Amino acid sequence: MNTPVVVLGIPLDFVLFALTLLGVAIFHRQTLGIALAGLASITLYKLIFAGFKTGPGLLGLTLHLEHEWVTLANLFLLLMGFALLSAHFEKSGIPDEMPALLPDDWKGPVVLLVLVFALSSFLDNIAAALIGGMVARHVFRGKVHIGYLAAIVAASNAGGSGSVVGDTTTTMMWIAGVGPLSVVEAYVAAGTALLLFAVPASIQQQNFSPIMKDPPRGLKIEWVRVGIVAAILIAALAANITANTNYPALLDKLPLLGLTVWAVLLLTAPIRQPDWGLMPSTLKGTVFLLALVTAASMMPVEQLPAASWQTALGLGFVSAGFDNIPLTALALKQGGYDWGFLAYAVGFGGSMMWFGSSAGVALTNMFPEGKSVYLWLRFGWHVGIAYFLGFFVMLALIGWHPDPIR
Asked: Where does the chain cross the membrane (predicted)?
């Protein structure tokens, strides 16, 4: 029989998870160990006292992991695979050519953020963030400001929020029967937010390390690697659209996107070897994210407040610390939301913390100096303000039009 423990009216599950996030925030050099210790303590508590949504004890844990394994496997495969993709992109020579295409002043970083936003509308936001980070590392001579890192993550998440193929949460909505046009309105808020955070973040970056004015001479683009990157992205996009359109049940049984990415990586390996040396460091960041996602999935959030624009706004802030996938699943089950608002909130909200989205974890694997909640909030202040104001611009221009509860 389950006997949940409550501390000052708060379930102990939430207390343990909050302590885990607090530990990550304070001791950002030991994030992996803290996340694993937090997951272990939450799992042990659920086994002994509270039980899982799927039942008590080991059987409940087994059923819970059976329910979550596709999501976790997809995240693992995508984070690991897109790290290799970004290395292919770096070695292609395109990032070195970018200074010739970007303006020489603070408007150059702005244009790069707009490109990341556009890429994320039809690619996975992890890939868009890593490509943006790779270009930034080259055009800013390896010195990327933490405020600008936050902006790259925000641009990738904002760009995916209005497209059913741009983010896992919007894809979930599509699978559940929400029409693609129902989430497109999220671009009103996302575009507003982009305008609000892109300028201060770009000025931060230009003051920190100005954009390179001209590319080095004698550069050559390696088109074979460009073709491999394109093949991976096209295959992932095609697999996502085909499965959602014709075989939606398959997405609940197999980590299709991750398997597709790795299939192309391995098939093209004889042509150009991936940078396998990236795997150990990428694995640490990936395991960290999976530990937090797994812990978040165990939280007793079975009942959300009544669907309203206020709830949707709050879910954006919640998604900065909690995994947005179970939050989206609960909102879909509850119904009564305006899906464009929800897509923007849970898609963009995670940008306010470096571990609040897969794109943030992937990018900070590339730039470890970003793994500090204090520095992320201090220098990425414009992301939170942009989220809040973008939401209310959308509310004023479009209004809250919820779907009937299904």
From this structure: 5-26, 32-49, 69-89, 109-134, 146-166, 186-203, 223-242, 254-271, 283-301, 307-329, 341-367, 379-400
Residue 30 lies in a domain: no
Q: Give the burial string for 386-398 (b: 16+ CB within 10 Å, else e).
A: bbbbbbebbbeee
Residue closest to 316 by CA, chosen among 289, 293, 343, 355? 343
Residue 178 inside a domain? The answer is yes
Give the pLDDT band of residue 257 (cuts 50, 70, 90): confident
Residue 35 has pLDDT above 60, yes or no: yes
Query: For residue 20, which of 292, 213, 348, 214 has the smallest C-alpha distance?
Result: 292
Reported in sequence order, the residue ranges of 122-221 that DSSP labels E, i.e. its strands, are: none
C-alpha to C-alpha distance for 159 and 117, rounded to whole angstroms: 4
Contacts of 278 (CB under 8 A, 6+ apart): 83, 84, 87
pLDDT at 215: 65
User: Is 370's pLDDT higher than 80?
Assistant: yes
Beta carbons within 8 Å of 115's beta carbon, 6+ residues apart:
132
Q: What is the span of the domain harbouring residue 195?
A: 70-289+299-397
* DSSP tally for the chain: helices H, then strands E: 19, 2
Q: How many CB atoms lie within 10 A of CB 249?
A: 8
pLDDT band at 218 (very low <50, low <70, confident <90, very high): low
For residues 151 and 201, the answer to whether their CB atoms sit within 8 Å is yes
Instruction: Report residue 10: phi and psi, to 5°.
Output: -110, 130
pLDDT band at 141 (very low <50, low <70, confident <90, very high): confident
Helix (H, G, I), strand (E, B) or coil at 299: coil
Residue 29 forms part of a structural domain: no
Q: How confident is the model at residue 157 (pLDDT cuts 50, 70, 90)?
A: very high
Total domains present in the chain:
1
Quickly list H helices, 269-372. 279-297, 309-318, 324-334, 339-348, 358-366
